């Protein structure tokens, strides 16, 4: 059974940075296009960044130039470096395959941007 676990969230002031990590058990992620999603209160979950198995990254316009998605070499789990965070980035962040999700959702990691 596949389990995805996200970590690295927290409380940060506007303009701050965080780095999110994703770990997986029960699967090797290397061959999958992986994405980072977020769900803000009262809103639907949205895909904000994705990266192919070969390292090609694409971003939603709302995070372009501020977020960087990457993946490690061995396990190919995705990371999300978030810079210049804004109030509207507050959400629970999840990793999963993209654009179609294959695995059960993890619990996510809460990112709160507040002054």
Please explain how this structure is put together.
- It contains no helices and 10 strands.
- The chain has strands at 3-7, 10-12, 18-25, 34-39, 46-51, 57-59, 67-71, 78-82, 91-97, 109-113.
- With 115 residues, the protein is mostly beta strands.
- The N and C termini lie far apart (40 Å).
- Strands 2-10-9-4-5-6 form a 6-stranded mixed beta sheet, with no helix packed on it. The chain has a 4-stranded antiparallel beta sheet with strand order 1-3-8-7, with no helix packed on it.
- The radius of gyration is 13 Å and the shape is globular.
- As residue ranges, the low-confidence spans are none
> How many DSSP H or I helices?
0
Helix content: under 10%
The H-and-E topology, N to C, reads as EEEEEEEEEE
The count of DSSP E runs of length 2 or more, i.e. the number of strands, is: 10
- Which radius of gyration do the C-alpha atoms yield? 13 Å
Shape: globular
Main beta sheet strand tally, sense and closure: 6 strands, mixed
What is the CA-CA span between the terminal residues? 40 Å
Question: How are the secondary structure elements laid out?
Answer:
Layout: E1 3-7, E2 10-12, E3 18-25, E4 34-39, E5 46-51, E6 57-59, E7 67-71, E8 78-82, E9 91-97, E10 109-113
Would you kindly provide a brief summary of this structure?
Helices cover 0% and strands 46% of the residues.
Identify the notable features of this structure and list them briefly.
single chain; 115 residues; mainly beta; 6-stranded mixed β-sheet; 4-stranded antiparallel β-sheet; globular
């Amino acid at each position: 059974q596949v389990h995805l676990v996200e970590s690295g969230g927290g409380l940060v002031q506007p303009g701050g940075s965080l780095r999110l990590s994703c770990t997986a058990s029960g699967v090797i992620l290397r061959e999958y296009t992986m994405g980072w999603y977020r769900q803000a209160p009262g809103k639907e979950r949205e895909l904000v960044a994705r990266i192919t198995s070969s390292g090609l990254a694409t971003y939603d316009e709302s995070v372009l130039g501020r977020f960087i998605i990457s993946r490690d070499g061995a396990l190919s789990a995705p990371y999300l470096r978030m810079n210049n965070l804004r109030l509207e980035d507050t959400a629970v962040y999840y990793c999963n395959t993209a654009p179609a999700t294959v695995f059960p959702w993890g619990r996510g990691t809460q990112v709160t941007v507040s002054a």
